[in-house]
Amino acid sequence: MLGVYTRDFYRAFSAGGWMSGLAQNPELATIFLLAQPQRREETYQQLVQYVQVGLNWQRFLRQVEVLRYAAWCGHQFAGYGLEKAIPADVLAYIRDQYVWNAYRGKVLLNAANAVTDTLKSAGLDVLWLKGIAAASLCYGDIRLRPMMDVDLLIREDQIHLAHDLLINAGWGYAGAPRDVWHYRSYQIHTYNHAYQRVVPVDSGMERVWVELHWRPASQRLVPQLPPDAFWDAVGVAKDTQHMETLSPENFLIHLCIHQAKSNFRAHLSRLDLALLVDQYVMDWDQVARKAEKWGLQRMVTAALTDVQVVFGSKIPPIDQSARLSLGVRYLQQQGRKATYTLLDRFDITPYQLLFLERWSDRFRFLGSVLFYPNSHDLKRWALSPSTQILYMIIKPVRLCVTLFVRIFSFVFR
Fold first, then answer.
1. CA dist., res. 152 & res. 155, Å (int)
2. Average pLDDT of 55-77?
3. 214: which of 30, 156, 173, 192 fits an S-S bond (Cβ 3.0–4.6 Å)?
4. Long-range contacts of 39-45 (CB under 8 A, 24+ apart)
């Protein structure tokens, strides 16, 4: 399901105009109109038109579930005064998402506060990351954003003390995720430890996961990003009085990095970015300097381009800054036909197109496809028929190798 709707989304992106590309999918068009942070009169008129024509509400529910925008879309429906136009079962589903997000968010918020207090009592520095920080900085209401776990950033030299503190506090160590393609050197590429605990709640017991990060992101994903990159500026979370999170500029870069993973959370990160840009006055020069310093110009540009195209956000670097507009010009130079072919055949996103020219010869391309399951370095050879056939052969081989390595690592761990 995810692949289908993700492909629909990016096919609409490349169809010569955002809303014209969504004309064949009014349900997806309605979702992204609702997701826009600013309520505008023209948006309201378009929503009314879609609702009056008639939507396939079951398809709407499936797509909004994949994008994880259900609670936010319900919030926007209420803001536009269109709740009466929603069928009862759809409205009930949206309200259930409100209830679940509130329940799960409260549990995770309490766990984040407890872990932060434990670490701060020993003199450790703690910053909130990802979902728990986005719910505080961007939404202001935990009911509007789904969250799965708690992600906290600590300093690299404090990870061992933090580990001992959590173990003594009753948290069970769930291990460090291992990169299957770097099994022998996984410690170099690992950047967090996971902990779990069953905590009492009103309705019984609930399992909570907490991840301690000593790097903002994987070293393989962003090799130039230092472990202490985000400690130069911090902000205070809205939901608490003393819990610190990233500054808006650092959090913007943080969200851009995690949007690069291109998994099911990328759509949610895009909405987080749109809300962040809408609510805060950014120091765009600072963002540009840091992106250039850490080698993230294209990553930041691509993420902001997506936000600007999808949500209509006004982002000055996309229009003015020469350092951050390189990726936009690159997208414009590709041509609609080649871009559409890449998006449709290989399920490659416009964001990933910015990385396609990293590999310049066939040997490195094959190595990329074979040994990196999430590689998207297909630009030069993706349109060649022989390479398409070769890729179809490599894909099952790669899956077999992955399965073998996973079995090997499980048996001999």
1. 10
2. 85
3. 156
4. 39/76, 39/79, 39/80, 44/80
**Contact assessment for residue 93 and residue 61, using Cβ atoms and an 8 Å cutoff:** yes
Do 5 and 15 touch, CB atoms closer than 8 A? no
> For residues 275 and 280, what is the distance between their CA atoms, to the nearest angstrom?
9
Q: Which tokens in the block code for residue 322?
A: 């020469």
307-289-354 Cα angle (round to 5): 45
Q: Yes or no: say if 192 and 212 are a contact pair by the CB < 8 Å rule.
A: yes
Instruction: Map residue 292 onto helix, strand or coil.
Output: helix
Where are the chain's structural domains? 97-314
In tens, the pLDDT along 207-220 reads 888 888 888 877 77
CA distance 215 to 144: 28
Q: Tell me if 304 sits within 8 A of 294, measured CB to CB.
A: no
Pick from 162, 158, 157, 153: which is nearest to 128 by CA? 153
Residues in the chain: 413
- Domain spanning 97-314 has what CATH number? 3.30.460.10
Is residue 388 within 8 Å of 345, Cβ to Cβ?
A: yes
At 342-374, the pLDDT tens digits run 444 444 444 444 444 333 333 334 444 443 333
